[in-house]
């Protein structure tokens, strides 16, 4: 090869890098109109009406590179978020948040919202057409507001089964709307027993009974089916309302089979979608109680008078409007629900049970105790862990953070300085490529050792 030929060859290589035309078309709307023709690796133009397979470069032109190791996530490096919500999110769910802006009453978005509502029926396991899912911008707390504003009227009797901090808050919400609240409390780490509940139901007529399926402050799990059976036997007119903020997606819920009237939750926990959506399923019975109110709901934003026709229209793929939803969050929820439902729900619940068992065994091995000491009271999506005597959350949590893991401090006001909480929900336990669970267990051991606890 002459020096002139060699120089020309190098010049051609430089000019290819300076070419303003893209090698491949942009995968964006209207990119076909904006871009010119494309070329193969040798610079040959490819006619648009005659697509052909691009030729592979010769081995000597493109050095062979080793395949990078498969990563569990393409997200920026960050500590593993092992708290009882928000949880770690799947990459595809986060990508859905970057969906381009669209009209909330345009047909493409309405179709997406319709799918979300239909898939929520599958997640909650209801096929009753009289039941109604709601998805409203807000946190899980908005679910309390919906229940109290729409189903309770001033003077109505409400029985709140207390297993931790969040029962107090739900009771406060009911009282805000004028209901008369009775709390049936259990010792910390336990739950009210069925015979105590039966006694309470026989002593007074309650319009609503509420139960926190998993109380995020204590990690206590309440059994729903036996409770529902009891309510149906003793007071069948009473509505059974479930606070499932920390359970939906990690604990089994059979809405129809267990005759539940309301289950409320939020997007950022086991469902695995960023925070910002209040999600609720209401039974036909609950809807009828709402329709037969004697007084107007005293919440405007949370009123089912405003939201019920919107949700019914969205599910029927009809554009409708009361208040603007978040299209990006709805798209993220759509992705999260499709991921959940791509496998049998039984397998998902089994994964959470297995992860829970692994965490709880480590807690025992490290000489620690749980707030929920009885196995039947222990949630599958989180664990509340008593620290050794003389050690407080500020002694342990910073060390965990240095090791790349985030646990939560105590939340129950009576014992907040004595325990920490670990969340194990969603992709952290269902994605086999993620090592969040193992990292959490190993980091806890190291953090405890560093503060003088003999493991």
Automatic annotation (TrEMBL):
GO cellular component terms given for this protein: peroxisome
Class in the EC hierarchy, top level: transferase
Cofactor(s) required, per the database record: pyridoxal 5'-phosphate
Pfam entry (one): Aminotran_5
Gene Ontology biological-process annotations: glycine biosynthetic process, by transamination of glyoxylate
This protein's UniProt keywords: Aminotransferase, Pyridoxal phosphate, Transferase
EC number, UniProt record: 2.6.1.44
Family statement: Belongs to the class-V pyridoxal-phosphate-dependent aminotransferase family.
Protein name, UniProt field: alanine--glyoxylate transaminase
Gene source species: Epicoccum nigrum (Soil fungus)
Phylogenetic lineage: Eukaryota, Fungi, Dikarya, Ascomycota, Pezizomycotina
